[in-house]
Input
Amino acid sequence: MEKDTFDSSFFDQLKKDENNFFWFHVRRKWIFDKLKTFLPPPAKLLEVGCGTGNVSSFLAQKGFAVTGCDIFSEALAMAWPGFQKVQGDAANLPFEDNTFDIVGLFDVIEHFQDDIMPIKEAARVVRTGGIVAITVPAREELWSCIDEIAFHKRRYTKKLLNSVLLEAKLRPCVTDYMFMSLFIPMKYIRRKKTDISDSFAINRGLNLMLKTIFNTERLISKFVPLPIGTSLIAIVRKEP
Output
């Protein structure tokens, strides 16, 4: 990830919130569910823009052979345990072609003005028959000051994300919404000014309730795609 796409001072607060805040808790499980249906552990996986490695560490615990790559050395220095850490730029990954079974870009491409470039680089280092997995924030109507604070360039619809993937010469196998029940609350509060330092502050009981709600959505989505959501997850397979 380019240095101007994220504020590295956020990593301390981010790591404090990643362990139990409902969104991170459910998202990493949702990612695992999708990955294992296409290529189960012990597939060789690269997470590009891994940050402090919350997803990488979780996927390693689930049996994937995980390498996490990030341009910010300070994030890697404080990263969660259990996976190999490599400093590198999403625009020029320090790996040879066809190295990994899976490459993940989890809430990464929305930070780039040219969002096709990191997808093409991910496709370069994944083997033929392997998959690229992508999550992004969904729906432009949910744009808020949180997106601005987080250095986002855009939010995505299914149509927009699929068109970006096709332009990168990758054909989506699946593109699904996540976090459906969060859509209306986010739309309602999107104009509220906030501070990134308290954006994950939440009552413990409410946090537990939201974990239950969204884990239920996650399980339902295995059988019935959600019609709307605040995030999207896409899986694409690298064809010969």
Observations:
- Residues 22-38 form the longest helix (17 residues).
